Amino acid sequence: MSTPAPIFKPPSLPRWPNGGAPRVVNVQRSARIKRMLSALLLVLDGGALTLGFLLGYETRRLSLDANLELFPTFDRYLPILALNLIVILLMFYSVRLYHQRRTFSRFDMARSVVGVVTLGTVLVSGIQDLFLRNTLLEVDYPRTMFLYVWLYSLILVVIGRELHRQIINRLRRAKITADNLLVVGSSKTASDLMQSIQHRAELGYNLVGAVDREADPREKTPGVPFLGTYDDLPTIIDKYQIEQVIIALPDGRRQEVPDLVIRCQRGRVDIKVLPDIFAYMAGDLNVDDLGGTPLLTVRDIAMRGWKLSAKRAMDIVGAVAGLILLSPFLLLTAFLIKRDSKGDVFYTQPRMGLDGRSFPMIKFRSMRIDAEASGPGWTVENDPRVTKIGRFMRRSNWDEMPQLINILLGHMSIVGPRPERPEWVMKFREQIPRYMERHREKAGLTGWAQVNGLRGDTSVSDRTAYDLWYVENWSLWLDIKIIIRTAWQTITRSSPNAY
């Protein structure tokens, strides 16, 4: 029996001048495949835990050498294996690790898996010791086997979930399991949202089209069909099998939102509202209480008290370790720079850091000595001012390594907003809302904006938004995640917009 095509065009549709007829994902087939993917993830987790337990048993058994015959056979450990599967899989379910999130980084997934598997393995060890002792099911569960089972389970579950992630991403890019999405609004905010969705197929959205108050809005997003007006919403949702609606209106039209929500309440449609006014406010929204009066917190400083001390301690340890371990390569780099072109090895430049104070930022010189003869400017791709060795250093971020000295001196942190030159800061503060708030924390060698490709000749507004989000959502884990991503991008030379 033949299966229906994953994408089809509803019959009798007119041609839309700004993008062609809307393409709609087959909802029934998509839902069926999503259920299969959920079942597959459960199978992968169960298989990984079973294989991890088996490998842990075999590793422990083979480590006994001459005493192999004294070690219990594997069938004696089946009750513990069953406990291990039940406890850890139930814990995965309880912390929503079987909920298919649209965006969940590998690092966050790995951290969640480590926490659950570690706690689950410890619980299983305690349960079998309490309830299986002095019964027919009692068996010696040595600590070394416990550690082997834990380690193998961690590795195999992470590998299995990464495989599952790749399968989901491929299906989403092929528009097989994507949700049909309708955007309400045609403002710049809505346009930016639709462009982002178009360029990030892994989010799992199939952008069917847009709706606005006017029959012919002034702003239209290329490639996105305009489907009608607010009055047409119920018909459009039914006709195009819409599953997700995002309302993206400018501040001046917020009074229309309640009516739009009512119009969109059809079947199992999920409705989301893009908070335009809060796009400039990077922190999470929290509700506080003031004598019974709820207050919405839109700005909070994450780094204070012990957190500052912990971050500074990590900076000192990281800078000292980096300078010691990398010293041979730093010396080799200095030699190659001198051999490649005339001029000093290091290049110091005033940059603005914490509280708007200027400091001399140190870098390996990657440009000719006359690079700024005609004034300062952004570095662009294939910049002729960059030297041969400089091109390699900038691509791999190696020219930034001397800033470990700045970190040790307290001018900078390992992770933080990227420092800019004072003349640029004076210009940006007049053009970009809340720009100076990024200077509430120390500047960083790397940062949230950089690992997301916002460096070089990219949007300063976008960089500012990412920097503010980092400042107001800081955590030690976030710093560690950024450092790991930076190291990976450096090793693979895959840093976006690094030139």
Structure overview:
Helices cover 46% and strands 12% of the residues. The chain is an alpha/beta fold and 499 residues long. It has 3 domains: 27-173, no CATH class; 176-280, Rossmann fold; 306-369 and 379-492, no CATH class. The strands form 5 sheets. The protein has a 5-stranded parallel β-sheet, sandwiched between helices. It has a two-stranded antiparallel sheet with strand order 1-2. Helix 1 (27-62) packs antiparallel against helix 4 (143-173) and helix 3 (106-131) runs antiparallel to helix 4. It is flat, with a radius of gyration of 28 Å. The two termini are 53 Å apart. The model is unreliable at 1-19 and 277-283 (pLDDT under 50).
**Class by alpha and beta content:** alpha/beta
Round the mean pLDDT to the nearest integer and report it. 81
Low-confidence stretches: 1-19, 277-283
Strand order of the largest sheet: 5-4-3-6-7
Give the radius of gyration: 28 Å
Q: For the record, give the distance between the C-alpha atoms at the N and C termini, rounded to a whole number.
A: 53 Å
Order of helices and strands: EEHHHHEHEEHEHEEEHEEHHEHEHHH
User: What shape does the CA trace take?
Assistant: flat
Percent of residues in helices: 40-55%
The major sheet is characterized as: 5 strands, parallel
Task: Give the total of domains.
Answer: 3
Count every beta strand, where a strand is a DSSP E run of 2 or more residues.
13
Strand content: 5-15%
- Give me the number of helical elements: 14
Could you list some keywords that capture this structure?
499 residues; alpha/beta; Rossmann fold; flat
